[in-house]
Amino acid sequence: MADPISARPPEGATGVLVLADGQMIWGRGFGATGAKVGEVCFHTAMTGYEEIMTDPSFASQIINFTFPHIGNVGANREDVEAKTLHALGCIVREDVTAPSNFRSLWRFDSWLKDHDRIGLAGVDTRALTGLLRKKGAQNAVIAHDPKGQFDIPALIETARSWAGLQGMDLARSVSTHQSYNWQEGIWSLQNGYSVVDNQKGPHVVAIDYGLKHNILRNLVEAGARVTVVKATASFDEVMAHKPDGVFLSNGPGDPAATAEYAVPVIRQLLDIKMPIFGICLGHQLLALAVGATTYKMHQGHRGANHPVKRLDDSKVEITSMNHGFAVATDSLPEQARPTHLSLFDGSLAGLELTDRPAFSVQYHPEASPGPQDSYYLFTKFIDLIAKERP
Ligand SMILES: NC(=O)CC[C@H](N)C(=O)O
Question: Using a 6 Å cutoff on CB, does residue 87 contact ligand 1?
């Protein structure tokens, strides 16, 4: 490798990804200018870049998209998973084109710029993915300057001195500050989003560690009346809403760090046999609450076609995944039964408690983006509540 400090950008480079080990990946910057530090990881979904960029689970992450054409349907108000973009930026193969979609409101690059997110185009994203598979997710800086002037030593230092996601609680920073009700169902081409009034349905309190809107929509479609509360809500604050069931959401960062304030609340909910359903970070927190441990994965799972084996009937669900931490299967206590396994690496993809009405999955059944094989889990939760709280 060339001396990283003296390596010059190729002609016309207006963007760069600087890895903590000093490697530089040059390209054409787009979106906002400046520099941002985070973890660079790769995502293999072929569609759904709006959902991915707005998913709060991607806070402090830079997404390297393996699909080469990203941004070509622009951005709209319907496909977002949160009010703003949460991924720090993205790396793409092809330059962003003008949007070609009747729903598009913004060009992808101006959408990034408006939300202070940096893009890097013209990168050999396959080679970068190869590097990330080999070395694992990397701490890095993504930078964009239209004049192509970069203080490389300073960027390397920023990437090197960033603490990394391990030990980092990010749920608190992306969570809502105030409780609110949610009534929107899932989107259809004919009707867009409809308001679903489930006043008589079971009341689900969703703890927002960084939740995605499509999870709330699926809970509503399954029949729940939904109230969202902040990540740091106490047991009493949760119970003040008189829940029939509690949902633990997905979210960014290290589950072991978020556990400090989330686990005591979950344990109290388990003690009163509250029906619980957790997704992704919520799954990890449920596992931590019963004494299991989590670990940081080498490269993580991020894509929309991850096969998962359902152990009860050996059926395979094709799932959407986005996680960089996982629950250590061998750390599960006796009363936590593995229900799903990743067919990519055998890691734990779901569990169920045998002595409490609680279950969780590591993947994203709300399928946003991705296949809808696992929508049934939302109904399973509502059925569980009906059984436990007739
Ligand atoms: N989507 C999520 O909830 C991600 C959970 C956790 N931050 C992880 O990376 O494993």
Answer: no
